[in-house]
Write a structure and sequence with these properties.
Helices cover 70% and strands 0% of the residues. By secondary structure, the chain is an all-alpha fold.
Length: 458
């Protein structure tokens, strides 16, 4: 299935292999969510609760990717789930999902550029934040203007750095847990006693539920496998391989990382004021721990931002290609880059960046709330689209004609849908996350109303 509705406006280049597709997805996922926000998860849910929440989040994303895998292999298009949702649920829902996902990355990139600038102030405390934020934005934009082949190679190198960093953290952390390496505050092996020091769930079920939105947000980006399917060299082979290897790697990495963090980081020391990785490396006696982690986190932010701008520009291109926004954004240059869609996405990121500095408690709070809420809504639409796709497909085809099948369909997709719906309801339990509902639901309604007003269909 090719969804290039404007052939004279250029074509994407199918130059990405499964390994590069995998690293693009990993690049979008492994960012501030694990390097910085993981401390917040331990503080809120407790050590055991933090591990449980990330395991549950990993299972959730695995289930979602089963459905997206079937759709992406059957119809490898740039824009992915927005196109599937519009076709197999409703045009209005596809329109809403695309805008929520686009906004999610716009807000994420603004936050990441600010985060990178703040980290740089460790070494250059007198340089204004906006200067470093601008430099990082320019680097990310420059990388995205490369051909998809060069872009994916650059992203593979950037993603590899943080993968090796996390692997080193896991290995050193396990050695400290079993007493092979010294650890401050312990004369013998800490083992896993810290997991139950404050009880399994010190803040109860509410504490566990309250971190699920943050955990889901930490896993966001893995769906990029579907978005990039239209730019892979062999989607039928690349997409299934990328899904299997990426999800398995991420679940193992996140689970083992949280096991080390939760075992070595006391609940009363966890938070978001200092990177939990730095605290643990310091207690291991690793020299220059803070500086080393600063470099790694900066690389992680650059990689996640690189993937994020890619996703935002392709989603905006897909909206234009479907005729729901200006067709002028469909233009693809000779390098296979939708430059106009990228420029508009970058302009929105700059606006969000300014809002994060000058209107953090008003405009930017609303944008962040919608972004966190959007992740779960986007994931929720994917299994629903797969259920309807399978029904339509089987009217004229046999099941064995599908190169990639969602196991136990439609039971598993329905279970996925129910769990994600519960995750949305759970948002109401935590006062700090309720703005996601207050701003997210009205934003959804505005998208639906506009689409009906403009195109006379829901």
């Amino acid at each position: 299935m090719e969804n290039h509705n404007f052939e004279h406006e250029g074509q994407f280049h199918r130059e990405m292999n499964w390994r590069q597709l995998q690293m693009l997805s990993i690049g979008g996922v492994i960012g501030t969510g694990i390097f910085l926000s993981s401390g917040y998860t331990v503080a809120q849910a407790g050590p055991f609760g933090a591990i449980a929440s990330y395991l549950f989040g990993g299972v959730m994303v695995y289930l979602v990717m089963f459905s997206l895998g079937e759709l992406s292999v059957a119809m490898p298009v740039t824009g992915s789930f927005h196109t599937y949702v519009a076709r197999f649920i409703s045009p209005g829902t596809g329109f809403m999902v695309a805008w929520m996902y686009w906004l999610c990355w716009v807000v994420a990139l603004a936050s990441q550029f600010i985060g990178a600038a703040q980290l740089m102030q460790r070494w250059f405390p007198h340089v204004p934040i906006w200067i470093f934020a601008t430099i990082f934005a320019a680097i990310v934009f420059g990388l995205n203007t490369l051909t998809i082949g060069l872009f994916s190679k650059a992203e593979t190198y950037l993603s590899s750095i943080k993968v090796y960093a996390i692997l080193a953290f896991i290995v050193l952390g396990l050695l400290a847990i079993f007493g092979i390496l010294p650890y401050e505050g312990y004369s013998k092996a800490p083992l896993f006693s810290n997991l139950t020091t404050n009880g399994l769930l010190p803040n109860g079920v509410v504490g566990l539920v309250s971190v699920m939105l943050a955990v889901n947000y930490a896993f966001s980006g893995v769906e990029m496998i579907g978005i990039a399917a239209g730019e892979t060299d062999n989607p039928k082979k690349a997409v299934p391989q990328a899904i299997k290897s990426t999800i398995g790697l991420l679940v193992v990495f996140f689970a083992l990382t949280m096991l080390v963090l939760a075992s070595l980081l006391p609940m009363n020391e966890a938070g978001v004021t200092e990177a939990p990785f730095v605290l643990i490396f310091d207690k291991m006696g690793v020299p220059f721990a803070a500086d080393i982690m600063n470099v790694i986190i900066l690389t992680a932010i650059l990689s996640a931002s690189n993937s994020g701008l890619y996703a935002a520009s392709r989603m905006l291109w897909s909206l234009a290609n479907e005729g729901t926004v200006s067709p002028s954004l469909v233009k693809i240059n000779k390098k296979g880059v939708p430059m106009r869609a990228m420029l508009l996405s970058m302009a929105a990121i700059v606006i969000a960046l300014i809002a994060s500095i000058y209107a953090a408690d008003t405009i930017f709070l609303a944008l962040v709330s919608i972004a966190g809420f959007a992740v779960v809504v986007v994931w929720l639409a994917i299994p629903l689209a797969q259920i309807n796709f399978r029904k339509q497909f089987l009217k004229d085809h046999r099941l064995d004609e599908l190169d990639y099948k969602t196991p136990f369909s439609p039971v598993l997709p329905w279970i996925t849908t129910i769990l994600l719906a519960i995750s949305i309801i759970d948002i109401a339990w935590d006062p700090s996350q309720r703005p996601g509902l207050y701003f997210g639901i009205p934003f959804m309604m505005i998208c639906y109303v506009y689409h009906y007003w403009r195109f006379k269909k829901w």
